[in-house]
Amino acid sequence: MAYEQKNDTGSLFPNAEKKSTNSPDFSGSALINGVECWVAGWKKVSNGGKPFMSLSIKPKAGEWPKAAAKNSDPWEGVPTPSEDDYGANRDAFDL
């Protein structure tokens, strides 16, 4: 059975063939919201001395799918809670 990438998951592998000091330390792929992507990772150290990994994620097809129109309301259809929805904890909220 062939491996099938699950949505919103990915894998990184050590990059054994670094061509320059700017080449990623790790490379791999991911499936993000159904879009197949290339993933690259660089080992770095924060100003506080803690190690971390910096990532770059790019779609394999070259461009991300078009996002929703800028004028659309992301909260459209989400009900606004009423005072009764807060129940006994309503004093904890600024109503």
Biggest sheet, strands in spatial order? Answer: 1-2-3-4
- Helices and strands: which structural class? mainly beta
Largest sheet report: 4 strands, antiparallel
Radius of gyration based on Cα positions: 22 Å
Helix content: under 10%
Cα(first) to Cα(last) distance is 57 Å
Q: List the helices and strands in order.
A: EEEE
Mean pLDDT: 82
Strand content: 25-35%
Number of distinct helices: 0
Shape: extended
> What are the low-pLDDT stretches, counting only 5+ consecutive residues below 50?
none
Query: Using DSSP, what is the number of strands?
Result: 4
Walkthrough of the structure:
By secondary structure, this protein is mainly beta. The protein has a domain at 1-63. It has no helices and four strands. The protein has strands spanning 9-14, 26-32, 35-45, 51-59. It has a four-stranded antiparallel beta sheet with strand order 1-2-3-4, with no helix packed on it. 2% of the residues are buried.
Index terms:
mainly beta, 95 residues
Provide a concise account of the structure shown.
Helices cover 0% and strands 35% of the residues. It is mostly beta strands.
Indicate the topology.
Blueprint: E1 9-14, E2 26-32, E3 35-45, E4 51-59
Antiparallel strand pairs: 1-2, 2-3, 3-4
